[in-house]
Amino acid sequence: MRTRIRNAGHTVVGHMTPIRRFRTRHSLADMVSKLTGSPKVVWVMVPVQFIDNVLDELTPSLSDGDIVIDGGNTQWTGDQPRADALAEKGIHFLDCGTPAVSGAWRTGTR
User: pTM for this structure?
Assistant: First the structure.
C-alpha cells in the first residue's frame, strides 16, 4: 500500500503499532506530528481486535476535518459507532476493504 500511495505522488509517514511482537520507540502522536497540511489523512491497518485502542490513542492528535481510513479487517457492523464517535470530535471515518497485496499485483492494479 505504501508503495502504491507514494507512486501516486503522496507523502507517506509510517508507524508500526506495538502489537504482539512488534516494538517501536515512537508513538502515534509522534507520527501524526510529522504529517503536514490539512486535512491529515491517517490510514490504519490493524487486526479488528486492536482498532478501537488504536483509534483511542490516535484521535487526540487529530484535528477537526482530519480523516481516518480503516483499511484493516473490521466488520462493517462496527463502523457506524466508530464513525459517530470520531464525528463528535470533527474527524471523518471511512472503512475501506483492502484486497490482499498479492491480489492487487495479479490483477494489474499496482
Answer: 0.74
C-alpha cell at 65: 476535518
In a 3-state reduction of DSSP, which class is residue 7? helix
Task: Report the amino acid identity of residue 41.
Answer: V
Q: Which residue has the cell 504482539?
A: 20
- Taking Cα atoms as reference points, which of 64, 75, 66 lies closest to residue 97? 75
In terms of average pLDDT, the best of 74-78, 84-88, 98-102 is: 84-88
Distance CA 9, CA 50 (A): 29
Integer Cα distance of 9 and 25 in angstroms: 28
Retrieve residue 103's grid coordinates. 491480489
User: Where do the domains of the chain lie, and which CATH numbers do they carry?
Assistant: 2-98 (3.40.50.720)
